[in-house]
Design goal:
Largest sheet: 7 strands, mixed
Radius of gyration: 27 Å
Low-confidence stretches: none
Strand content: 15-25%
Structural class: alpha+beta
Length: 577
């Protein structure tokens, strides 16, 4: 459990959060409700970096450009995660006053108490509204600017405000902001894109009070809206690699060598070589090789990471001594076998380990996360580490026939559907986007179809099954797995269905289900659906999965790629029949 407290000097407020939530739900820069108050998780500059909480996954460290990954603190021993009050604007439910917390809160013994200084008894209510920009900044909703129609007014000089709600009207039109000067305005039209014509002030309250130049326009949002904070979580599977004993030791101690003088490094490597009973010259050589490795850009490193996973999932890796975090049993599929005209390998993965790290976040839109460059910074200074968690689980890997996919993706339907989706997504985004390959579009759609069917057959809820799509050139695989932060992992219910005959039945059932959707013909004929127009023929009745299951946030899906447009052998699932 991660315990949080606030930085400001006031009575300490503590609450418990799951460590996994500190990476996925309540990470740096996110809003956390605590009883009747609201706080924001502070930046990594204010966290206590405890090496005892290190999560080992060198490949993910290299991908994200950090020296180490650390689990969020938990309990009094490893420290607490600080937070700051946000929003600062609050209101009193009794006298309706609306102002900053420091001006409205009572201060009986030199410390602020969350109650109105004028009414004494009622607890103050944090503002329901905030203002964000697409580059990750956030600030209090500009009530004075809104009420005075684009003119900022000072805190002094007869401009105290009250918030009045109409019990007969639950819409924004029923909320009116009144100023002491006589100006008043309802909040109708205050939220959403284009709601505020005010330029962003460059505020980053989770880092510090400083501001930076920003040219974006503010967007009014509700404090609890899902687009106030999107986590950018990067993950990697721990797969078997051919490492020497010296390289294994180096991976464990590499983060400890950061900032050391070269002479001290040599001495330290000698000590570690004797402790782990490895040849000192081999350890020094491995260190020099790692240090001289050429820097790679994010896209290249990400492709290499996925390529290593794809190769390992198709190779036997048995359990030797009961301590392995990756166990895999592949089964080849003959072209004469059931469904052998589409799949060529099925792997049961009884044991897998996944490390998930929070690398940044976005606000207003997920476009920054999708581009691989999230806007929100986790720290003001470079700290050299990121919060991460490890989960253990099991899964099923299905590798499809590359020759079938290679032939299908050159068809007129495949190229036409991917181009149609590309055009719709770029028109909605107003900018050029990375190309969407027919192979990825088909494999991702097939992954969702199989995931939904697998949930029915195994009894696992769809929200507990995750996907991992391998669709680079030369790759044609899908990993469906379930994982938990519990030390025991999952219970084997998913992996037991990873037999070739079972997967063949599931794919046949998924094929039959993909032909029909209760929203047809509207769904089948759709040309731009989903957030950002990033789907074609896909809806909740046929392809969409819980967002926690999809690594692409339910984007880039098209059922027509699977079942075709009515012409013979046009869809992938019909092409090989």
């Amino acid at each position: 459990m991660a315990i949080t407290k606030k930085i400001r000097k006031s009575p300490p407020i503590k609450t418990s959060i799951r460590r996994t939530h500190m990476v996925t739900t309540y990470g740096v820069g996110s809003l956390l409700p605590v009883e009747s108050e609201s706080f924001m998780i502070a930046g990594l500059d204010h966290w206590r970096a405890d090496n005892r909480l290190q999560v080992d996954e060198r490949r993910l460290c290299e991908l994200l450009g950090v020296s180490r990954l650390l689990a969020p603190p938990g309990g009094e021993v490893s420290g607490m995660v600080p937070m700051v009050r946000f929003p600062e604007w609050v209101s009193c439910p009794k006298c309706n006053r609306l102002d900053r917390f420091g001006r409205l809160a009572d201060k009986p013994k030199g410390e602020y108490v969350n109650r109105c200084r004028f009414c004494i008894s009622p607890k103050l209510v944090p503002s329901r509204f905030v203002a964000c920009c697409p580059t990750g900044h956030i600030q209090d909703f500009p009530y004075r600017y809104w009420v005075h129609r684009g003119t900022s007014m000072s805190d002094e000089g007869g401009h105290s405000m009250r918030i009045i709600t109409n019990p007969a009207d639950s819409s924004l039109a029923g909320i009116t902001i009144k100023c002491e000067c006589g100006a008043s305005r309802s909040l109708q039209g205050a939220l959403g894109s284009g709601s505020l014509s005010m330029r962003c002030g460059g505020h980053s309250p989770w880092l510090d009070k400083d501001t930076e130049e920003c040219t974006e326009r503010l967007v009014g949002l509700q404090r609890g809206a899902s687009n106030v904070w999107f986590a950018d979580v990067r993950s990697a599977l721990t797969v078997d690699r051919d490492l020497t004993k010296a390289e294994e030791v180096l991976e464990k101690i590499l983060s400890e060598l950061d900032g050391m003088r070269e002479s001290d490094v040599t001495v330290y490597l000698g000590i570690k070589a004797r402790q782990h009973e490895v040849d000192e010259s081999e350890l020094v050589s491995a260190y020099r090789t790692a240090k001289s490795a050429r820097p790679r850009d994010y896209a290249e490193a990400s492709r290499e990471l996925r390529a290593a996973e794809y190769e390992a999932l198709g190779r036997l890796h048995p359990e030797d001594d009961g301590t392995k975090t990756f166990v895999c049993f592949p089964s080849d599929v003959s072209p004469t076998d059931r469904a052998g005209d589409l799949i060529d390998l099925v792997s049961r993965v009884p044991r897998l380990r996944e490390v998930r790290a929070l690398s940044g976040f976005a606000r207003v839109s997920t476009s920054q996360v999708k581009s691989g460059a999230p806007a929100g910074s986790l720290s003001r200074a470079k700290v050299g580490w990121l919060p991460a968690i490890e989960v253990l689980g099991e899964g099923i890997f299905v590798r499809f026939r590359d020759d079938v996919l290679a032939t299908w993706e050159t068809s007129e339907l495949a190229r036409g559907r991917s181009q149609m989706l590309q055009d719709a997504a770029e028109a909605a985004a107003g900018q050029a986007l990375p190309p969407i390959s027919p192979r990825f579009l088909a494999l991702h759609s097939l992954s969702h179809s199989v995931l939904r069917q697998l949930a029915l057959d195994t009894g696992y809820p769809a929200s507990s099954i995750r996907e991992r799509v391998y669709a680079e050139p030369g790759q044609a695989g899908v990993l469906l797995y379930t994982a938990t932060a519990d030390a025991a992992g999952s219970l084997g219910g998913l992996c037991s269905h990873g037999r070739v005959d079972n997967i063949a039945k599931i794919i046949e059932a998924a094929t039959e289900a993909a032909h029909w959707c209760s929203a047809d013909p509207v769904c089948l004929e759709a040309v731009a659906t989903g957030a950002g127009a990033t789907n074609l023929a896909a809806c909740h009745s046929c392809l969409l999965a819980p967002e926690v299951s999809c690594e692409h946030q339910n984007r880039y899906l098209d059922r027509v790629c699977l079942v075709g447009d009515g012409t013979p052998r046009s869809g992938l699932l019909l092409y090989r029949s």
